[in-house]
Amino acid sequence: MSILSARGTLPIRALLSLSVVTLLSGCLSSTATKPSELQLIGDWTYTAVQTSPLRENLAGQFRIISESGTSFQGRLDNVLATNEATGQTRVLDGTVSGSAEGNVIDFDANIESTPRRHVGQIVGETITGTWVSSSAGGGMSSGTFRAERETP
Question: What is the phi/psi pair of residue 111, to 5°?
Fold first, then answer.
């Protein structure tokens, strides 16, 4: 074996070792839940008005159960939807997932066959904004919402 070939293999071995160490260190990074940046966990009083296709008033509880980084999960429970024209009521329940950055919040509420996308602004202990939903058949519904943090 010549000196040239021995020297030529050393850099290749060093590069391979460095590559393996780099790949392994990426695999060792934590998959644990990130600390929350939101501080939204808790119960909120939820009210909304559906403005189209027909007018309904909604009232219930918005509960944020978990947070990780800028994401959160929760539920909308016992949302009573009252049709203004007929007085008929129905109860809606379902999961919620979304994110918030700064004072902007964006979440989907799965309370009917298609999610209602909510986008709003957080000011103090209040969230206000608009929501929209579209069905597979092309129907659209939309409105406004408000959530106020309940004091323990």
Answer: -105, -5
